[in-house]
Amino acid sequence: MWGHLTDKERMEFARNEYGNYSVGKRWKIHGKSVGYVQQRIGFNKDGSPNINHAGEQAYVVTNTRNPHKATEVAVVYRGSDTDFKHSPKDVCADWGNDIVAGIRIFFGSHNKTVLPQFKAAAKTLDNVCRKYPHASVYVFGQSLGSMDGQYGVCRTKYPQRIKGGYFYEGPNIYDALTFSEKLQAFKLRHRIHNYQDGKDIVSMGYGLLKPSIGQVIYIDSTETGNVPDQHMWGGYRFNRNDSLKTLSVEQEQLLYAENDYDRLINLTNFIFGNKEVKVDPGDVVAIANVLTAAVEEALTVATSEVKREKSFFEENWQHVQQMARAIGTDLSMGEIMDALAAGGATQASMVAQPQEICEQELHQLVSAAERLTSLGSGMRSAAGNFEATDSKISQMIGE
After folding, report:
1. What share of the chain is helix, strand, coil (3-state, %, to 5)?
2. Which of 146, 217, 358, 365 has its CA 20 to 30 A from that of 18?
3. For 151-165, 218-232, 274-288, 385-399, which range has the lowest pLDDT when averaged over its residues?
4. Count of domains in the chain?
5. Do residues 244 and 195 touch, judged by C-beta distance below 8 A?
6. Cα torsion for 346, 350, 355, 356, to the nearest 10°?
7. What is d(CA 74, CA 167) in angstroms, rounded to the nearest whole number?
8. By CB neighbour count within 10 A (0-12 exposed, 13-18 middle, 19+ buried), where does 320 fall?
9. pLDDT tens digits for range 75-124
10. If residue 153 lies in a helix (H) or strand (E), which one and from where to where?
């Protein structure tokens, strides 16, 4: 049944993740029941987030009221909490993970350290697969919930059970995967649907030739003029048959011309730039610490990667010369070098120029790291004044 939902119905299915559903309650699309909630994960009894779950919140939904008769089961991961007033600790856990993911995407980090929430999400998916051994498994998630789902399907011990994955507006976490997880992502690519609105500041790490999890569907969206609305499916448009309006490859490239550093800064500005939200100083410090630590970690990895690439250029140039000498045994070294140069292979083109590009890229990363680190320091400084308001923090970010 769920496999035949329209694009619009699937979006509504996922949108329910932000509701407060008790166990046994009907899961509805446009007022029509399509399932029943069997489990709530990461919630207190009153529906508030339980911070002991590493920030993870999820619903387990089956297509039948009796779970033993279920033929379909869905894990629906909830996205980032934005309720600073009532759930500040959960907001810090969620947005801390978002910021770390964004930094790793921008710096091109190959660090395989898995965020705690991703581990919790993967465990949830495996538990559901074991509990419902004969049911087809679907996975939904938006924003941070999308990242939870992306990681979960690539990590699960039961990939053959995954009937479909539908993820919305979450950063690309492909580079955080191990080789075996990337291989599983490849095997599941036709069953995973990754929806992205390029006008959403959270949509980081995507674009032409950038590897990602599943089939990336770029939305032909409208500009809402409001950051939360844009992020929460506000710009999505549908055809008469309820299929999504999507972009061509050329349109997608133009839309993703904005680099991920700008998206990361815009995301941070949004979190602390809303003057109507009062942010607890302790929560500001917590996220600032996450920001600073993630920047330091990512810059260390990026610096090591640049050093490795520079060594590779040197070694490759030496290898080319050795091959040329082995082939041109009757030629002098000068003649060999002239022949290589005629083919465009010189020390300048194969070593000096690419190394210079690496240095320029590293310089850009260092400059960005300094700005982000300064941002974290400024946030801690502003939070140190107990009378500091988020409007002052907003002014500091804008400088």
Report:
1. 55, 15, 30
2. 217
3. 385-399
4. 2
5. yes
6. 50
7. 13
8. middle
9. 999 987 555 555 555 555 555 556 666 666 555 554 556 678 889 999 99
10. helix 144-155
Q: What whole-number distance in Å separates Cα of residue 73 and Cα of residue 88?
A: 31
pLDDT at 37: 97
For residues 6 and 20, give the distance between their C-alpha atoms in angstroms, rounded to a whole number: 24
108 Ramachandran zone, left/alpha/beta (phi>0; psi -120 to 50): left
**CA–CA gap between residue 94 and residue 393 (Å, rounded):** 20
Q: In a 10 Å sphere around its CB, with 0-12 CB exposed, 13-18 middle and 19+ buried, how is residue 269 labelled?
A: middle
What is the DSSP-derived secondary structure letter of residue 66? S
Neighbour count for residue 373 (Cβ, 10 Å): 16
Whether residues 208 and 313 share a domain: the answer is no
Residues 222 and 132 in one domain: yes
Measured CA to CA, the distance from residue 289 to residue 287 in angstroms comes to 5
Q: Among residues 35, 73, 84, 39, which one has the least CA distance to residue 57?
A: 39
Look at residue 280 and tell me if it is in a domain: no
pLDDT tens profile 6-31? 999 999 999 999 998 999 999 999 99
Q: Tokens representing 377?
A: 């320091």
Alpha carbons within 13 angstroms on the beta-carbon side of residue 381 total 11
Q: Does 195 lie in the same domain as 336?
A: no
Three-state DSSP at 7 gives helix
CA dihedral 207, 98, 56, 177 (to 10 degrees): 50
The boundaries of the domain holding residue 374 are 301-398
Please write the tens of the pLDDT for every residue from 240-277. 999 999 987 666 656 665 556 566 666 666 555 555 44
Q: Which pLDDT score is estimated for 291?
A: 67
Would you say residue 326 has pLDDT above 70? Answer: yes
Return the closest-CA partner of residue 76 out of 19, 25, 160, 14. Answer: 14
- What is the reported pLDDT for 387? 44
pLDDT, position 189: 93
Residue 292 falls inside a structural domain: no
In a domain, 278, yes or no: no
Phi, psi of 244 (to 5 degrees): -75, 145
Q: Is residue 268 part of a domain?
A: no
